[in-house]
Amino acid sequence: MSTTYSNTPEGGTNLTTSVKGRALWAGLALALGVPTLLALYSPKSWFPGAGQTVSVAIGELCFWLLAAALLLTVRFGERSPWSSMGLGKPRWAGLGWGLVAGLALLLLYPLIQGLLKAVGLDPSQMNSLDLKTLPPWMVIGMALRAGIVEEVLFRGYLLERLGTLFGQRQLGALLSLIFFVAVHARSWSAGHLIFVAIAGAFLTGLYLWRRDLWTNILAHTLTDGVGLLALRFAPA
């Protein structure tokens, strides 16, 4: 069940004076601010002498810390259960749908890839990272981080909190999807961003349908795990 917020006491939690309202604003500042800063200023620019593996590890750690901060904000700041962001008890049906959704995205990718290549776009090109220089364990870690942290951030937190803030979950879904695509813009080519937008819309629709973040986490992790490892071990 979503938490109710309002600018007036009669409508729910007062956004300017209540502890829960202040926790909401703090969470939104974290959820919107940290990914924006990491997209604009990559950890590699913080430590110019550090190698790619170190800079990637720092970036991954920042995202894990962000997810932990949001979970703590929801539980102890808002005093809302994690089920308010789709993290209830995992259910076999939800995990099954996550597997089906992940396989569907994996089947969809080559179709989109073929269409994009036909118009001169490469959906597998990265702008700022060479996966082949990273150890396989780190690539797997990146997939786990993407599947868990991005679903907590974009679907579990931003979709739910923006939807509740504006009084319309569909608007929260749209805004979170736009932000999801935007933070990927610096790392990936234009071709891959099209797939990111399609996959993001798919995952957003999946969450709106199931309201089970475990379903999304499994689907996202499976898709990114197979995709990133395929790029890591693809022939030069």
Automatic annotation (TrEMBL):
Record domain CAAX prenyl protease 2/Lysostaphin resistance protein A-like: where: 135-225
| Transmembrane region(s) | 23-42, 54-74, 95-116, 136-154, 166-185, 191-209
Q: Name one GO molecular function term.
A: endopeptidase activity
The domain of life for this entry's organism is: Bacteria
InterPro entries according to UniProt? Rce1/LyrA-like_dom (IPR003675)
Alphabetically, which GO biological process terms does the record hold?
CAAX-box protein maturation
Has the keyword Transmembrane helix been applied to this entry? yes
Q: Which UniProt keywords apply?
A: Hydrolase, Membrane, Metalloprotease, Protease, Transmembrane, Transmembrane helix
Q: Kindly give the Pfam families that the UniProt entry links to this protein.
A: Rce1-like
Q: What is this protein called?
A: CPBP family intramembrane metalloprotease
The record lists the organism as: Shewanella cyperi
Organismal lineage: Bacteria, Pseudomonadati, Pseudomonadota, Gammaproteobacteria, Alteromonadales
